């Protein structure tokens, strides 16, 4: 990898926010009412519905919209054993999740 490509790749992964994925709210959280619906006491309603019917977790939570990509970093494509922390970005663990 030439120096220009290397620096471009490092900048891409660092700016404007480190990494390639983020967690952000899907609901407005601007008012006290919003927070009451999102947390307590509002969160009790979907919790109780899910308790009665576990499939409702797909309706009321992000359960159907998440993926886990797990690696111990021992066989990173083209890099070998670089460890779990470096492997998180190494062969695109974050990239694969997008």
TrEMBL record:
EC supergroup of this enzyme: oxidoreductase
Keyword Iron-sulfur among record annotations: no
One protein family per Pfam: malic
SUPFAM superfamilies: Aminoacid dehydrogenase-like, N-terminal domain
Enzyme Commission number: 1.1.1.40
Keyword Manganese set for record: no
Molecular-function GO terms, alphabetical: malate dehydrogenase (decarboxylating) (NADP+) activity
Protein name: NADP-dependent malic enzyme
Underlying gene: maeB_1
